[in-house]
Amino acid sequence: MTPSATEQTGFALIPMVAKVLAACGFVLMFTVLSWMLNQHQAFGLGTLFGSLAGSLIAGTILLAGYVYGDARRRGMPPGAWTALAVLIPNGLGFVLYFLLRKPLVCICPACGRSVSMDSAFCPSCGRAMARA
Ligand SMILES: [Zn+2]
Questions:
Q1: What percentage of residues in the chain have a pLDDT greater than 90?
Q2: Distance 118 CA to ligand 1 centre (A)
Q3: What is the pLDDT of residues 8-26, one digit of tens each?
Q4: N or C: which end of the chain has fewer CB within 10 A?
Q5: Which residues of 2-14 are buried (b: 16+ CB within 10 A; e: fewer)?
Q6: How far apart are CA 14 and CA 10, in angstroms?
Q7: How far apart are CA 47 and CA 50, in angstroms?
Q8: Distance from Cα 106 to the centre of ligand 1, integer Å
Q9: How many angstroms is it from 115 CA to the middle of ligand 1?
């Protein structure tokens, strides 16, 4: 079996654009907040809140990126699930995603469609799937 999206785990699953966005979000949040709060003679407070808020933003973006990559390899619409996970407040969208996500799928070597791990044959072309 050739390396595919199915075999990626954890951090490798997060799209590059999400990692870059997370880094930018952190830097932006940190810079703006520490500048704003340090203006008001609260030196140190701005740095503290800046890094807290920056980590929060970066963490959310990375988690959204993970949901995107994970939904894609499970044959679920990645854009819709990422939007849902991000838009439902208090992290409930992410909880919902991890509760409702489908089991892992593998890619049919013959036709390239995603096939659930427990099926013996590809439903679209009928090729026998290799058992793990
Ligand atoms: Zn097939």
A1: 50
A2: 14
A3: 567 888 999 999 999 999 9
A4: C
A5: eeebeeeeeeebb
A6: 7
A7: 5
A8: 10
A9: 8
